[in-house]
Amino acid sequence: MSEMVIFDRAAVAAHRDRAAARLGRVRPVLDDLASRLLDRLDDTGRVFARALDIGGRGAVTPLLAARGIAVVATDLSPRMVAAGHGDVVADEEFLPFGAACFDLIVAHLSLHWVNDLPGALVQIRRSLKPEGLFLASMPLLGTLGGLRAALIEAEAALTGGAAPRVSPFPELADCAGLLQRAGFALPIAERETIDFDYADPLALLRDLRDAGETNATVARARRMPPRELLAMALASMVMDGRLVVRLDMAVLTGWGS
Amino acid sequence: MTDPAPIDPKLLEVLVCPLTKGPLVYDRANSELISERAGLAFPIRDGIPIMLIDEARKLDA
C-alpha cells in the first residue's frame, strides 16, 4: 500500500457530512455530469444487473435504477448515507465488498480525494465480475486551474508565500496507466471539458462547499485565508463581469478480467 | 425496547470485512457485523452498516 498521505480523509468525510444537507443547489450539476457519464453504458450495448455506486451522492443511483439495475451505493460520509444517498458507509481506500459481486461499478467524481488510488482501483477490479464494467469520472489537472493560479499569485503578493488551496488532480495519461496497472482490460481514459459560467465569483466557492469539494489536502492552510486573499484572487479571475471555471474531467472505463 | 432496524439481506450477500476481505457474521441482537479475522465489530445504525475501520469496536482477544 502507498505510504503517501496527501489528503486528510477525516476532512474529506467532514466536507461530505457538511454537504449532505446542502446538495440541493449543486444537484443539477451533479445530475447532469452523472447523466453524461452513464450515457457510456448505453454505448456498450450490454445489459447490467447489479451495480455498485461509489460516492455518487444521489446522482448516480436513480439513473442506474431507471435502467433496471439493482444498486448498492456507498459514501464515506455517514450523514450523506443517512440523508438517503447510499446504503453503506464505506471508505474508498478499504472497500467492504466481496470478489466478483458486481457487473458494473460506477465512481462519479468520488476518487479524487483518495490517497491510495492504485490500491482503491485494485479493490474495485476485484469486486467486479469478469467482463463487468468499471466507469469513473475524475477531475483532471486543468480543473480549477484559474483559481489555483489566482490564489497562489494573490497569496504570494500578500504574504510572500503560498499554501496549496486547490487539490492536486492527476493528469489524463496517469489515469489510463493506473487502470492498466490495476489489472483492468481495455482501459480507456478520455477527457471531457465543461465550462461553468459564474456571474458572482463567491458563488463558485459556495458551490464547491455545497458539493463537499473544498480543499482537503494535508498541507492545506488550517487557518482561514485572509479576506483580502480571496477578494484579490477572485477579482483577478473575472473577465467582462463573468467568471468562467473549467472542469477538466477524465472519463475512465475498464473491464473486469 | 424496539427491534434494531434490520439490514437489507441483499447487502449481507456482498459485504465483507474492509480490512481482511474475509467473511462477516451478522449479530442481529447487537446490530453489528463481526469480522473475526480482524477482531472488529462494525456497527449498523438505522439499518446502515458503517464499514469504517475507525468506527469499529475492537473485539476482546
TrEMBL record, chain A:
It comes from the Bacteria. One of its GO terms (molecular function) is S-adenosylmethionine-dependent methyltransferase activity. Residues 52-135 form the Methyltransferase type domain. GO terms for biological process: methylation. InterPro entries: Malonyl-ACP_OMT, Methyltransf_11, SAM-dependent_MTases_sf. The keyword Transferase applies. Keywords: Methyltransferase, Transferase, Ubiquinone. This is Ubiquinone/menaquinone biosynthesis C-methylase UbiE. It comes from Acidiphilium rubrum.
From TrEMBL, chain B:
Gene3D superfamilies: 2.20.25.10. It comes from the Bacteria. One of its GO terms (cellular component) is cytosol. Belongs to the UPF0434 family. This is UPF0434 protein SAMN05421828_1119. It comes from Acidiphilium rubrum.
